[in-house]
């Protein structure tokens, strides 16, 4: 295989926006190449039940992404299991370097790199990452059968993780720094009815502690946000669910960003400030952040790219 390849449309990222862009760009006979990135399928691969995808009353997140990938392939999209390490948008054709050593040039680029889990930033959290501290209940919940678990956060992600973990844990403590949850009402109702879940209001994680040999979590110390009182909570697993940050590192010095790292696009389109570069999904959307809106934006990006390429020709 050559170390340098050219394509009309290069799609970077493989969540709902990336795969949908692949479907539409393929149908437009643009012969797109999609580079999957570090997490093929994106955030939905670390989700369990998805209940708001049109046409499926309930579908497992990983299954949905497998179907989307198969759909894009069936339409003719070439899907590459690689990671883009650098991207030059200063001139056309645009140039992407990948982890495998292959260089891709493209007439148009569609950015669908999505978002990644946020962390608390505590040294003790960093110490136990992968050894009791996790940001993915579906990945790691199985390891805590019959154990006590702590979940940190107050939005949809935190409540979904807490509910899912009751399938394994003897008890789940949800730690939230405020006194009300930001999650959807239906999720809050389920949480309130679940006897395994206890919510600890006005508290935040002060420290994660555990053993060094072998490395493993034994519990957390939480700090009351009003009184400063420290409380000890025994736990074998700590799941951080405080949201996600856009994965815009590739373009942070090349494109205009907003709201903490989201890529700016023209209103009502996916066009960025650089002609021929388009952005879709959670990389640019800080408002809705849903699988269905990401897919819709992937469609828009492919149509925008098709129009741009036609105008160049």
Summarize the structure.
25% of the residues lie in helices and 31% in strands.
Notes on the structure:
It is a single chain. The protein has 313 residues and is of the alpha/beta class. The protein has two domains: 4-116 and 244-312, FAD/NAD(P)-binding domain; 119-240, FAD/NAD(P)-binding domain (3-Layer(bba) Sandwich), CATH 3.50.50. Helices cover 25% and strands 31% of the residues. It has seven helices and 21 strands. The chain has helices spanning 16-27, 61-75, 123-127, 137-140, 156-165, 185-193, 291-312, and strands at residues 4-12, 33-35, 49-50, 59-60, 78-80, 84-88, 94-98, 103-111, 115-117, 133-134, 148-152, 171-175, 197-200, 203-212, 215-224, 230-234, 237-240, 244-246, 257-258, 262-263, 277-279. Strands 1, 2, 5, 6, 7, 8 and 21 form a seven-stranded mixed sheet that branches. Strands 10-17-11-12-13 form a five-stranded parallel sheet, covered by helices on one side. A hairpin with a 4-residue loop joins strand 7 and strand 8 (103-111). The protein is elongated and about 65 Å long.
CATH topology of the largest domain: FAD/NAD(P)-binding domain
How many structural units, i.e. domains? 2
| Count of strand segments | 21
* Overall CATH class of the largest domain: Alpha Beta
Rounded Rg? 21 Å
N-to-C terminal Cα separation, in Å? 28 Å
Order of helices and strands: EHEEEHEEEEEHEHEHEHEEEEEEEEEH
CATH superfamily of the largest domain: FAD/NAD(P)-binding domain
| Annotation field: number of helices | 7
- Runs in which pLDDT lies below 50 for 5 or more consecutive residues are none
Query: What level of helicity do the residues show?
Result: 10-25%
Strand content: 25-35%
In one word, what is the shape? elongated
Rounded average pLDDT: 95
CATH architectural category of the largest domain: 3-Layer(bba) Sandwich
Largest sheet: 7 strands, mixed
Broad structural category: alpha/beta
